[in-house]
Amino acid sequence: MTVIIANLSLVLAAGWLFRKYGIVQEGAEKAFNQYLYYLALPALVILKIADTGLSGLGWRFLAANTLPLAAVMAVIWILWKANALDWRFARLLLIVSVLGNTVYLGFPVAVMRFGEDAIGYAAIATSIQNIFIFTFGFVLMTLIHEGTCPPSRFLRLIGRNVVLWSSVAGLVMSAFGLRLPELLHKVLSDIGKTTLPLSLFTIGVSLYGKRIAHNLPRIALVSGFKLLLLPFFYIASARVLGFEGFVSKVTFIEIVMPVAVLNYVIAAEFDFDADPGAVVIWFSDDPSLNEQTRFRLMEASDRINHTDLVVVENTFNRPRFDAGKIYFLNTQKLSKNSLLVRGHDQEEMEAKAGDLLPETRPDLRAY
User: Fold this and answer.
1) Could you give the CA distance from residue 109 to residue 12 in angstroms, rounded to a whole number?
2) pLDDT digits over 96-135, tens only?
3) If you ran DSSP here, which 8-state letter would residue 40 be given?
4) What CA–CA distance (Å, rounded) separates 65 from 54?
5) Is the pLDDT of residue 269 over 70?
6) 266 with 129: CB under 8 angstroms?
7) Using an 8 Å Cβ cutoff, are 333 and 307 in contact?
8) Per-residue confidence at 1, pLDDT binned at 50, 70, 90?
9) How high is the pLDDT of residue 67?
């Protein structure tokens, strides 16, 4: 296992170093992700599933790959209904707590731990999990966000999901014994082989410059659901179902894979909350326009808390903007003579107050 960890770490470190020293430029991971998501990953999944027979993978295998996911989603739904989670975080948690890095990390770990024979079963397990997540999970997320899930919305979501359809294609080919032409099989095989090393390298590139300290509570909660609750439900389900052996071990590897790049790719493709630490700055040259926009946002949506809409005043002195909030700022407050830029000048403010009577003069020091 030490060799596996060292192997993973070195490839990840290579990606991080390439980004740090400018060999790979900023934004390159987006191109890598596009290639992996739309070409390399589908090629790998389709071929590995098609080349691995489904015989012997009965209802226990199917149940062991879906019941734990359903249990975790049910816990999140209950917490949201009990107002223990806000709708935005509940929506995000539904995906990232069950959608692990089954390909970018899961496939390499499964191959290193159990050999090449494991990747076919890993691909099938991942496919079943993806089908469940990208159908049932998407419905739950839409219900949380919009209160309803119109068929058109559901079809639009799954229609452009390459991971889902490559999984379905591989399962159909395996079930009916279909085979691709030799040349196409060879091309897709060569492309699929790039998935494992490039996915690890991409994680390393993506990790450069990431700052997570400001969002540790949410990250800890997501990790707890993914790395503790989900494995617990899997082990319990496998014991009740009597699901054990080589395939069970490979499935467990896929279940416990942590959250990482694949979730960012999915989030980017489907407009989920890829970055819970995101901040929005509404910038204009008219303070009254900012107030008008702020009021209209509150009026138009019942999902935006008024405390999340913050007007930046001259007395703003926080070291950084808080995650998940919308800040309203105007150009005047960034001029070289503004108090926001120069800092709070107590004597100047008292001088401007003039000869006001003590009972009418504002308490400037308290202010």
Assistant:
1) 13
2) 666 655 655 677 777 777 887 787 888 888 888 878 887 8
3) I
4) 14
5) no
6) no
7) no
8) low
9) 92
Q: Are strands 326-330 and 309-311 parallel, antiparallel or unpaired?
A: parallel
User: What b/e readout covers 56-88, taking b as 16+ CB neighbours within 10 angstroms?
Assistant: ebeebbebbbbbbbbbbbebbbeebeeeebeeb
CB 155 within 8 A of CB 108: no
The predicted-structure confidence for 138-193, as pLDDT tens digits, reads as follows 788 878 877 776 777 677 767 777 877 888 888 888 888 888 899 999 999 999 88
Q: Are 201 and 40 in contact (CB under 8 A)?
A: no
DSSP for 78-99?
HHHHTTSS-HHHHHHHHHHTT-
Instruction: Decide if 287 contacts 313 (C-beta within 8 A).
Output: no
- CB neighbours of residue 128 within 10 Å: 22
For the chain, the residue count is 367
Q: Residue 12: CB partners within 8 Å, gap ≥ 6?
A: 200, 201, 203, 204, 207
User: What would the pLDDT profile of 330-358 be if each residue is shown by its tens digit?
Assistant: 877 777 667 666 665 555 555 655 555 44
Q: What does the DSSP assignment read for 207-271? A: HTT---GGGHHHHHHHHHIIIIIHHHHHHHHHHHHT--SHHHHHHHHHHTPPS-HHHHHHHHHHT
349-353 long-range Cβ contacts below 8 angstroms, 24+ apart: none
In this prediction, residue 301 carries a pLDDT of 66
Query: What is the phi/psi pair of residue 326, to 5°?
Result: -110, 120
Per-residue b or e along 192-209, where b marks 16 or more CB atoms closer than 10 Å to that residue's CB: beebbebbbbbbbbbbbe
Rounded Cα–Cα distance for residues 262 and 199 (Å): 9
Judge contact between 219 and 90, C-beta under 8 A: no
**pLDDT tens per residue across span 9-66:** 888 889 989 998 989 888 888 888 889 888 988 888 888 888 877 776 788 989 998 9
Q: Which residue has the tokens 């401007």?
A: 352
Q: How far lies 29's CA from each of 158, 161, 211, 341, in Å?
A: 24, 20, 17, 36
Amino acid at 19: R
